[in-house]
Design brief:
The protein has helices at residues 9-19, 28-31, 55-68, 120-127, 146-152, 159-162, 197-201, 235-247, 260-270, 290-306, 318-329, 331-335, 354-367, 394-413, 432-435, 438-451; strands at residues 24-25, 49-50, 72-75, 92-95, 102-106, 111-114, 132-133, 169-175, 181-185, 210-217, 219-220, 224-232, 254-259, 280-288, 311-314, 341-344, 371-377, 382-389. It is of the alpha+beta class.
Length: 471
């Protein structure tokens, strides 16, 4: 941890000489937004925020931090849901939102080079005029940055068919903890020269290096899309429908579900016409060649009906499709209106165990007398149990902690993972040793020590710094 506090006038002056006074924040009222991210109940006052505009400035800041043994926490838009960008006491918050340029779109090689502060949706928007498509679509895509997406290996609604952020990263520029700048990867579709170092930095949550450029793979834009919404009187019937769709070798781009509680909250919030008495609603979306899309949409509708769907609604046009899809995309916002604190989890299990984990979440809510809604990515097993609570209620928060621990243990028992897309950060750190063997957990630490021997990059995230007590 830091041997100096960044408040010292000398250090502030040196930072100001790197980025300029306009890109250095030290006043308490300016620092408030940087003291938290999208994670409930996690806060830490920032003492200094720098917003550099060049790679050279980033490297100079990290070099200074290394020389003075000062922690550095990298940040984008602050939409993370694991506490990964929460400030470290006495450290620098390095916010990369000013590095926000798309540097190159290369249609010949189907790639895009951009800086880390580019908003995720802007990447797909920029690709569209070239007939190209950037598929990853986290729920925060309208505000999250690509740097944060890469650092957390973000998923999204289209993950079933198209994969996650890692599948679209071909290369990156990284500032190492020493302040050195290196390039990893290339535009080559085949590149096996040495270790695949770029993949080590994808999902590293800012603990190994600071990403300053990203080379992304693009794909041809689908020519057609069809959206359907099916409702069921049981979660089991919804799960059977999803399983049969996959068994029939139909791979939709989206297979999402909402439970009854989520449906009611979304309908009250967005008025999209959801069947609020259904036990489960499944959003199905297929894209590709028009004739294939029509065939797959009809097949999915038939499968849903054969599994006892109460209703199967096909989108009439693009506007109607957007309206149906908004039922899923507004789930978190709708639920967040109910109680002062909303805790969104992202446990993931093999698809064959989905009904078990959803049922267990319902039982756990009853056991601990908690209000829990569940939605998520049925197609890839990623479930979002969402606990509606109040962080000022100490007794209730104790029950929340017990419930989360039980859900984590059940997830691991079912062969799942404690996080499918949000990352470990601070929120999941206590649970990581439950998923990893001692040797595997030790390997994580060895990688951290090898690349960041001083432990200055995002210390205390994923696991505790070497020499400190394990969580």
């Amino acid at each position: 941890m830091a041997s100096h506090r960044i408040e010292s006038s000398n250090l502030v002056s040196r930072l100001s000489s790197i980025v300029g006074k306009e890109d250095l924040l030290t006043e308490p009222e300016d620092l408030v937004p940087y003291g938290f991210d999208g994670t409930a109940a996690l806060k830490q006052s920032a003492v200094c925020v720098v917003t550099p505009r060049t790679v050279e400035a980033v490297a100079a800041i990290v070099s200074l931090a290394a020389a003075e043994n000062i922690p550095v926490v990298t940040r984008g838009s602050g939409t993370g849901l694991s506490g990964g960008s929460i400030p470290v006491d006495g450290g620098i918050v390095l916010c990369l939102v000013n590095l926000d340029e798309i540097l190159e779109i290369d249609p010949a090689n189907l790639t895009m080079l951009c800086q880390p502060g580019v908003i995720t949706k802007a990447i797909d928007d920029a690709a569209a005029p070239f007939g190209l498509f950037y598929p990853p679509d986290p729920g925060s895509m309208k505000i999250s940055t690509i740097g944060g997406n890469v650092a957390n290996n973000s998923g999204g609604l289209r993950g079933l068919k198209y994969g996650v952020t890692r599948d679209y990263v071909m290369g990156m520029e990284v500032v190492l903890p020493s302040g050195e700048v290196c390039w990893l990867g290339s535009k080559c579709v085949k590149d096996v020269a040495g270790y695949s170092m770029k993949d080590l930095f994808v999902g590293s949550e800012g603990t190994l290096g600071i990403i300053t450029k990203v080379l992304l793979k693009l794909v041809p834009r689908p020519k057609a899309r069809r959206t359907l919404l099916a409702s069921f009187d049981s979660m089991e019937a919804a799960a059977r429908t999803v399983s049969e769709i996959i068994e029939k070798q139909i791979i939709p781009c989206t297979l999402e579900f909402l439970d009854r509680k989520t449906c009611r909250c979304v309908e009250d919030y967005a008025k999209v016409g959801l069947p609020t008495e259904a036990a489960a609603v499944v959003l199905m979306e297929t894209d590709g060649h028009p004739s294939v899309v029509d065939e797959e949409a009809d097949a999915m509708a038939a499968i849903a009906e054969s599994n006892g769907a109460i209703t199967v609604e096909k989108a009439r046009d693009e506007a109607h499709a957007t309206k149906l899809a908004s039922a899923r995309r507004t789930a978190f916002s709708a639920l967040a209106r109910i109680r002062p604190t909303t805790i969104l989890e992202d446990v993931t299990v093999p698809r064959s165990r989905l009904v078990e984990i959803v049922s267990f979440v319902e039982e756990t809510g009853r056991k601990y007398d908690l209000d829990i809604a569940t939605f998520g990515h049925f197609g890839d097993g990623n479930v979002h149990p969402t606990i509606l609570t109040d962080e000022t209620d100490t007794e209730e928060m104790e029950r929340v902690e017990h419930a989360l621990s039980d859900i984590i243990d059940k997830t691991i028992e079912l062969g799942g993972t404690i996080t499918g897309e949000h990352g470990v950060g601070l929120a999941k750190k206590p649970f990581l040793p439950r998923q990893f063997s001692e040797a595997s957990f030790s390997l994580l630490r060895q990688v951290k020590v090898a690349l960041d021997p001083l432990g200055i990059l995002n210390p205390g995230k994923i696991f505790d710094p070497a020499g400190e007590a394990k969580s």
